[in-house]
Write a structure and sequence with these properties.
Elements (H helix, E strand, L loop, with lengths): L21 E5 L10 E9 L6 E4 L2 E2 L18 E2 L2 E4 L9 E4 L4 E7 L13 H11 L3 H15 L14 E7 L4 E7 L2 E6 L4 E3 L11 E2 L3 H7 L11 H5 L8 H15 L6 H8 L26 E2 L5 E2 L1 E10 L9 E6 L8 E3 L23 H15 L1 H34 L3 H38 L1
Antiparallel strand pairs: 1-2, 1-12, 2-16, 3-6, 4-5, 6-7, 7-8, 8-9, 9-10, 10-11, 11-13, 14-15, 16-17, 17-18
Amino acid sequence: MAPRKVLQPQSDDQAPIPQSCDTMVAPPTATRHGQMLFAKNSDRPWDECQPLELHPRREHAAGTGAGTQFVDVPQVATTYRHVGSRPWWCWGYEHGFNEHQVAIGNEALPSRLEEAGQARLVGMEILRLGLERGRTAAQAVEVMTALIAQFGQGKFANQAGVRTYDNGYIIADPTEAFVLETAGHDWAVKRADRPLGISNVYSLETDYQSLSPQAATRARQQGWADTAEPFNFAAAFAKGPRDTGSGAQRRHRSCAVLDARYGSIGVDTMINLLRDHGGADHPAQDFHTRLESGGICVHFNQQVDGNSGGGNTAASLVADLCADGTRLPVYWCSFYSPCLAPFFPVFIETELPPILAQGGEHAQDQPDSPWWKFHQLNILARQGGPETIALVQQHWAHMQQQWMSTAYDMATQGKGLLDAGENRRAGELLTDYVNANVASMLGALDELHQTLGQQLGAARS
């Protein structure tokens, strides 16, 4: 079995991958409808394409490899049907969900550990392996922690130019959710009994439910922890302060907003939070949709001379899971900046439009890629200024409202057909619905491109 060879298109002298992802979860006791809600913003370099793709359930022959890039992970007999959002160069995912309603998102964590000389798993690969092998959130955690213990993750030297880091995750299913944070081969796990968010800062101190066997010993051998019990995982492994900086501020914002809305959190709450540019000082106030520096919705630095850089939210997900069997789970997906794009509904039972998976290193290579088109829309909207940004947001608001009013009827109808054994009819119904919505979205996207392009051209003339 040979590890998969995929190159990350960045050299060591380029700016590091922005560490600004955010993942949130609200358990059923905290939500308006009594169902689990999961949300994730994936923040990556501003021009790193991140398409959306579906992989069916597959049976595998013994002796094959899983597909990971740097280490050789043996494949399992069955991998589950799943949808993942991945940087174009990577086998793993920033976030995704599977046929068993397991949803996972990850964050980069700055740890004290030095760069390792031996190959390890990339954090996004661990996420994908959790989706492929986990029937429940708890089982996915078991899969992921076993892989971390065996193969390791975090910073390691490699010839491919792939930037690596330690990772944090939220893993959720309809009935329970967990936070998993890592440091090399070590990890800590906490059950999420209240709504919370994680970001690019260690958060599991002594309130974990399980801990890797050697975590405390390794930290104490390095002089990062004393012998006091219980062992503080975050304090031992975190590099730098955990109460200041962008990651701490964004985590404070997401936790404060969710806590202030306990018992009334809905899909709209999660979408608005992923679009938010506000701070944590007044969490009960309305969400901030103005494009300002900071906030959970991250924007790149657009300069007058056309040179841009930094990070941007590359893709987003809100998973509305269902524990009572009354409907199918609904997954709301978005490309690029969520404050300038709609969240369109997806079902794991459908065949996704193939165009959603289009997208490579350069826009000109796949000009029809939805991700690259939303990337360009962001540039046009910001060049046009506040009025143009408001126009784009209003344009998507009507379409979003229509989907909100129809998606759950589709989820109920689809579940009824599946329960009646009419799998083919259910698949056709849901696939036609998703295809129609994506076609409408892309048509509207092309219209916006044309309108904004004409407006900007007229303004320059």
